[in-house]
Structure formats: structure tokens, C-alpha cells
């Protein structure tokens, strides 16, 4: 064939010996034996944020000042706070004569719950037992002392404190403590409070109340509201505890037909469109849930919300937490979807600001609109809490009479001069009608003569 050498393709078969087959089968059996039947950890409450959320906004899920728990432990950019955490732990235990000597008691209690604490995290923690227990003890004592310094004037704040003695420290710390990946199980704090010297530092106030007071400067509520409504909430960690103060809404749906109704809810129009159709927006009370939005007789009541630099991070981590489990409530996700529907532009934000519903500390109304419009990217909403409300709003919007009233009010009654002109036109029309009627009656009467 023109000097070409043609080689036949040969298939090569690799034969496994009987001995290797047995060894391979035993290896697979061993792996199967180590895998539990169910891939479910009922204690797991602290998760890694899914990569699809991280790619949208890495900063919203990453601590910038302090590491709490194992997920970001040992990172170089957070090393400065490690010594400061030790100072807080030392300060907490040093206020009693026997305090420092109680460290062995803290360690003993923590060792008893080490296994339970490890299971609170969504992945295997590759720290030795000593390293893990030490991290839990120091982080737990640090947080207890932090909450004490925040509310009690008796606890001294030293000069040079990285948190309280500068303009940016506390703001950055508050942000870091609501990150889903930066959480400490509440069982750790409860465990440390078994030590009498530590528990006495709370002066009879529950750790939940102290934690909520710490966050209250960010999402302000009255002291009575914090104490009466939220003192008994048992959060799995700080983010969960804070979240429970938002979604204390009663369940609306309990059967399959209702679930279908939830999933079929249509979004509402923007604030500007609804306003043109006659919908009024009113600021409701701050004494209940931030998510308790109501609609009745053309009036939508929305609890006030303060928008700051950290608000985006807070809402994103609430949503990320709700996305981590099938049985989690989706109230915050529902809230984000509803606000995304209501707010399409800075004009919509402007209306809500004028009504006192939104307090904008970002300055730019378009920035607030962008915040809500980006919250729900890549987010799944299986149960929409506001489905019934949206149906009511859409029915109202589609009816003609409210839209006609709104148009009349906007075009003819928007200032005193147009009102006078409109009334004058009506009076002139009535007089013209009466004059015409009088002329007709006079003509008819003369025709009879």
C-alpha cells in the first residue's frame, strides 16, 4: 500500500486477579459500612454558604474583623482579634477572686458537649479535641464579656479597646457576628454559664436578652418589646436568635391546598404603580414583627426599616440560612421577594421614605432599590408567606374604581387652584344645565298658550 505500514488496532484487556477482586470488594464494603443510611444531621445549624450566593457577593458572607467558630479560624487577616478575645476572657474571669482558677471548670464542661457542638457544623471540623475545646471556650467567654460591656456601665472599657474605643470597631463586629459561617452554637454559651462565677456576671439577665440588646442599636426596638416578646426565644445561634425576632408571624397554611396557593402567588406592582391605583402606604407599629405587612381597604401597612451599610449583609445571611434546610421557615426570603416587587427604582424608595417606612442611611435612593433588587438572585422560594396579601393587592389594583379615584385625585385635586377650577367647572356645568332646562320649560309653556 504505497509503502505504508498498516497496524491493526488491538484491544488491551486488563484482568483483575481473584485475589484483587476480593480486596476491592472488601474496600468498597468498608466504605459503605462507614456511610450512614441517612445524610441528615439533626443537630446541624451552622452551614457553609452555597457558592452560588458567594459568587454574587463574597464580602456579604466573609468576616472582616473577628473569627467565631471553626470555619474562618486561623485566617491571617483575623489574627489581630485573637489576642483581644483572650483579653476579654481574662477580664470576665478576673472580676472574681477565684475566677481564673475556674478555667479548668470551663474546659471540663465544654469537653462534655464537644461531640454535640461539632455536630452543629455542616462539615467535619479538622481540629484536635484540645484545639476545638480551647476555641469554643475562648470564643464563648469573649462573647459573654462583649455583651456585658455593651450594656453595663460597671464593666470597664479600657482605652485602646479594638471594639468600643474606635469609630469602626463595633460596626464591623456587629456585622461579623451575624454571618452564617461565623456562628457559635448557643449551647456553648449555656454550657459556660454553668460556671457560677461566669453566670453571676449576668446579674440575673438572660444571655438571650443581652445578645438582643447588643443588636438593638442596629435594628432598634423598645426595651419592653425585647424583654416581653423575645426573652424566651431559643435560637440555635446568634443569627437564628436574631432571626426569630423578625419572623414571629403565625403560620397561615397547614394543608396541601394552601401550599398550592402559596406557590401560585403572583408578585405585586411597584409602589409608584400601586399609588397611582389608589393604594396608600402607611408606617405600622414597631412593637411586633418587622415582617408583619398588612393590606386592607386599599391601605398597605409596613413596619419601618432602617437601611444601613450592614443591612444588605444581614438580610443576605438570613436568606442563606433559610435556604439551608427544607424545614426552615422562609419568612425572610418571602419578605425580600415582596420588597423586590414593591421597589423597582429610587422613586419607589422615595415614596416609602416620605411615609417613614424606610429610613435611608445610604443616602442614595437608587442604592436602596439596588439592594432589594439583588437580594433574591439565585434564591429559591418554595413557600411564599405573602401570597394571600399579593392576591388582595392585585385584585384591588385591577379594579377600576380605585384607579379612577386616584387619577381624579392626582390630576384634579393635587393643589388648591385645581380644586377651585374643578369646583368652578362643576358649578358652571350645573348652571348651564339649569339655564337650558329653564329655557326648555319656558318654550313648552309658551307653546301651550
UniProtKB/TrEMBL annotation:
Record key words, sorted: Membrane, Transmembrane, Transmembrane helix
InterPro entries the UniProt entry points to: DUF247_pln (IPR004158)
Keyword Transmembrane helix: yes
Transmembrane regions listed in the UniProt entry: 417-441
Pfam families (alphabetical): DUF247 (PF03140)
UniProt name for this protein: Uncharacterized protein
Organism: Papaver nudicaule
Amino acid at each position: 500500500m504505497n509503502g505504508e505500514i498498516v497496524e491493526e488496532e488491538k484491544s488491551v484487556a486488563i484482568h483483575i486477579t481473584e485475589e484483587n477482586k476480593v480486596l476491592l470488594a472488601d474496600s468498597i464494603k468498608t466504605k459503605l459500612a462507614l456511610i450512614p443510611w441517612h445524610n441528615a444531621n439533626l443537630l446541624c445549624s451552622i452551614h457553609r454558604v452555597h457558592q452560588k450566593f458567594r459568587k454574587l457577593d463574597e464580602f456579604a458572607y466573609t468576616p472582616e474583623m473577628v473569627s467565631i467558630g471553626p470555619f474562618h479560624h486561623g485566617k491571617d487577616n483575623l489574627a489581630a482579634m485573637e489576642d483581644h478575645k483572650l483579653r476579654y476572657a481574662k477580664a470576665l474571669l478576673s472580676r472574681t477572686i477565684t475566677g481564673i482558677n475556674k478555667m479548668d471548670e470551663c474546659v471540663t464542661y465544654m469537653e462534655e458537649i464537644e461531640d454535640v457542638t461539632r455536630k452543629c457544623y455542616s462539615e467535619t471540623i479538622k481540629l484536635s479535641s484540645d484545639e476545638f475545646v480551647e476555641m469554643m471556650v475562648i470564643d464563648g467567654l469573649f462573647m459573654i464579656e462583649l455583651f456585658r460591656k455593651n450594656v453595663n456601665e460597671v464593666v470597664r472599657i479600657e482605652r485602646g479597646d479594638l471594639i468600643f474605643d474606635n469609630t469602626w470597631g463595633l460596626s464591623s463586629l456587629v456585622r461579623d457576628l451575624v454571618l452564617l459561617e461565623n456562628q457559635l452554637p448557643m449551647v456553648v454559651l449555656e454550657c459556660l454559664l454553668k460556671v457560677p462565677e461566669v453566670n453571676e456576671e449576668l446579674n440575673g439577665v438572660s444571655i438571650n436578652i443581652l445578645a438582643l440588646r447588643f443588636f438593638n442599636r442596629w435594628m432598634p426596638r423598645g426595651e419592653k418589646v425585647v424583654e416581653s416578646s423575645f426573652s424566651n426565644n431559643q435560637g440555635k445561634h446568634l443569627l437564628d436568635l436574631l432571626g426569630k425576632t423578625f419572623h414571629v408571624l403565625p403560620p397561615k397554611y397547614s394543608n396541601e391546598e394552601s401550599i398550592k396557593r402559596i406557590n401560585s402567588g403572583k408578585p405585586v406592582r411597584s409602589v409608584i404603580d400601586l399609588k397611582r391605583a389608589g393604594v396608600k402606604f402607611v408606617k405600622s407599629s414597631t412593637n411586633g414583627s418587622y415582617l408583619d405587612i398588612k393590606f386592607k381597604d386599599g391601605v398597605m401597612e409596613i413596619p419601618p426599616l432602617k437601611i444601613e451599610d450592614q443591612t444588605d449583609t444581614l438580610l443576605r445571611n438570613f436568606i442563606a440560612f433559610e435556604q439551608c434546610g427544607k424545614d426552615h421557615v422562609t419568612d425572610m426570603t418571602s419578605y425580600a421577594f415582596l420588597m423586590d416587587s414593591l421597589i423597582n427604582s429610587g422613586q419607589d424608595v422615595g415614596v416609602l421614605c416620605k411615609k417613614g417606612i424606610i429610613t435611608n442611611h445610604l443616602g442614595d435612593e437608587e442604592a436602596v432599590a439596588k439592594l432589594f433588587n439583588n437580594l433574591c438572585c439565585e434564591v429559591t422560594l418554595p413557600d411564599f408567606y405573602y401570597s394571600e396579601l399579593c392576591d388582595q393587592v392585585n385584585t384591588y389594583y385591577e379594579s377600576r374604581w380605585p384607579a379612577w379615584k386616584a387619577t381624579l385625585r392626582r390630576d384634579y385635586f393635587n393643589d388648591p387652584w385645581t380644586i377651585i377650577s374643578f369646583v368652578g367647572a362643576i358649578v358652571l356645568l350645573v348652571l348651564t344645565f339649569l339655564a337650558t332646562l329653564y329655557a326648555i320649560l319656558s318654550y313648552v309653556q309658551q307653546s301651550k298658550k
